[in-house]
């Protein structure tokens, strides 16, 4: 079953516009406000001993996780409710926002701290690597969510055809998964995709943590080991919270989508 929706649908265009404004706004706060503040606090001795530098770094992480959660949720929601083609639009919009984020950071940091021209190519290489890392995470989520939704759609199509053959009313595919309750079900493609997002976020954080630990060196005592364990447990906690946030965002999107789907004309192919 396919929804008669496309990029020409005014409702879908509004959703795309909201996502574009939302994701670019989050990254504008990150790169145009927090980065200059962090650079200023870190380079000015007046702020030494204050918590302002740590505060901006904490806000860095919060904004970044909010952006990831919003982007993942929009990607999953669009794939399930509108299809693969329209989900590609979300992917490219996010990639543009990620490029805006890293280019802005590069330019602002260069303006405030200066650019080492001898290492310019290396800094540009790091910029490209960060963009590719973000793109890789989105691709993994995109492919995983698509496969989960595709599996559900195939099962739903068989069920819908059997119901139609028996003369029973055929519900829209949204009706079986939207809105979901408080119980986690891996048979629900939306919830399963959100769990996948949590795993991707966890892997990205753990890999970064391992690289840092290897470069920093082996722990020298029990205190170092305790801090390492604490940080890894923190990564797990953050990933679980992000998974829950993604489910919440998807549910809020889909509560509206279910009503729209119910009013849409559908056909079994």
Tell me, rounded to a whole number, the average pLDDT. Answer: 84
Task: Give helix % range.
Answer: over 70%
**Strand pairing plus helix content: what structural class?**
mainly alpha
The figure for the number of domains is: 1
Segments where pLDDT lies below 50 for 5+ residues? 1-5, 264-269
Number of strand segments? 2
Largest sheet descriptor: 2 strands, antiparallel
Number of helices: 6
Overall geometric form: globular
Strands ordered across the widest β-sheet: 1-2
Topology overview:
Blueprint: E1 2-3, H1 10-43, H2 52-82, H3 84-113, H4 120-165, H5 189-216, H6 222-263, E2 266-267
Helix pairs in contact: 1-2, 1-3, 2-3, 2-4, 2-5, 2-6, 3-4, 4-5, 5-6
Mind explaining what this structure looks like?
The protein has 6 helices and 2 strands; from the N terminus they run E-H-H-H-H-H-H-E. It has one domain. The longest helix has 46 residues, at 120-165. It has a two-stranded antiparallel sheet. Helix 1 packs parallel to helix 3 (84-113) and helix 5 packs antiparallel against helix 6. 26% of the residues are buried. The protein starts with a strand and ends with a strand. It has helices at residues 10-43, 52-82, 84-113, 120-165, 189-216, 222-263, and strands at 2-3, 266-267. The chain has 269 residues and is mainly α. Helix content is 78%, strand content 1%. Residues 1-5 and 264-269 have low confidence and may be disordered.
């Amino acid at each position: 079953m396919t929804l008669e929706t496309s990029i020409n649908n005014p409702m879908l265009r509004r959703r795309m516009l909201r996502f574009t404004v939302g994701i670019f706004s989050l990254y504008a706060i990150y790169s145009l406000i927090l980065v200059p503040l962090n650079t200023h606090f870190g380079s000015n001795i007046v702020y030494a001993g204050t918590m302002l530098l740590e505060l901006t770094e904490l806000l860095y992480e919060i904004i970044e996780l909010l952006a990831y959660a919003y982007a993942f949720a929009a990607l999953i929601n669009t794939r399930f409710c509108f299809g693969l083609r329209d989900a590609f639009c979300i992917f490219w919009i996010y990639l543009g926002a990620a490029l805006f984020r890293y280019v802005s950071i590069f330019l602002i940091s260069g303006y405030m701290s200066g650019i080492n021209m001898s290492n310019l190519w290396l800094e540009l290489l790091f910029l490209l690597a960060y963009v590719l890392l973000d793109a890789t995470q989105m691709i993994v989520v995109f492919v995983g969510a698509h496969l989960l939704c595709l599996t559900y759609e195939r099962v739903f199509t068989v069920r819908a055809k059997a119901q139609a053959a028996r003369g029973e009313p055929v519900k829209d595919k949204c009706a079986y998964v939207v809105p979901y309750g408080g119980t986690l079900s891996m048979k629900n493609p939306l919830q399963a995709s959100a769990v996948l997002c949590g795993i991707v976020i966890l892997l990205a954080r753990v890999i970064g943590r391992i690289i840092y630990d290897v470069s920093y060196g082996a722990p020298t005592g029990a205190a170092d080991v305790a801090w390492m364990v604490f940080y890894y447990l923190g990564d797990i906690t953050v990933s679980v919270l992000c998974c829950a946030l993604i489910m919440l965002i998807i549910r809020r999107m889909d509560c509206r989508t279910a009503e729209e789907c119910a009013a849409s004309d559908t056909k079994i192919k």
